[in-house]
Specification:
Blueprint (H helix, E strand, L loop, with lengths): L2 E9 L4 H11 L4 E8 L3 E8 L2 H10 L4 E12 L4 H11 L4 E8 L5 E8 L2 H10 L3 E3 L7
Antiparallel strand pairs: 1-3, 1-4, 2-3, 4-6, 4-7, 5-6
Length: about 140
């Protein structure tokens, strides 16, 4: 059970981010979560959106470099220690996290954590075995 995430190559120059947001807005595609990692010259914008295939298509039509990859989505209580429990389980199993970010769920008192790991299936199995609910695209309410 994974989440589809867009990764968009972004030049580190004025207007790059607004260009991406405008393309998605014109296509009626809602952004649910995002994060960006940058260097001096470029960045990688990671997005959770409604209809990632359509988002990829419209961005590529505007010459953006876009990929869709699968990441693990985890639902945790939005309270102190929610994230710490997930991280301890992964750390004890020697699962390395490449990156992660979170956003609040529309469901009351829940947060979603997006985690990029080497082995999604192993991570999902481990978390669910420990009572952590992993989510899929359809669980994210827009």
């Amino acid at each position: 059970m994974t989440i589809s995430q867009l990764s968009v190559f972004v030049e580190n120059k004025q207007g790059s981010m607004s260009g991406i947001a405008e393309v998605l807005a014109e296509a009626g595609i809602d952004i649910r979560a995002l994060t960006i990692a940058d260097t001096t010259d470029f960045g990688i914008l990671r997005l959770i959106v409604r209809n990632p295939e359509e988002a990829k298509k419209v961005l590529q039509e505007k010459n953006f470099v876009v990929t869709i990859n699968q990441v693990v989505g985890v639902e945790v209580p939005d309270q102190v220690g929610g994230l710490a429990r997930v991280l301890r389980i992964l750390d004890d199993a020697l699962i390395n996290i490449e990156y992660m970010y979170d956003f609040l769920a529309i469901k009351e008192e829940k947060a979603y954590i997006i985690i990029r790991v080497e082995n999604n299936a192993k991570t999902v199995e481990l978390l669910e075995k420990n009572g952590i609910r992993c989510i899929k695209d359809s669980d994210i309410v827009f």
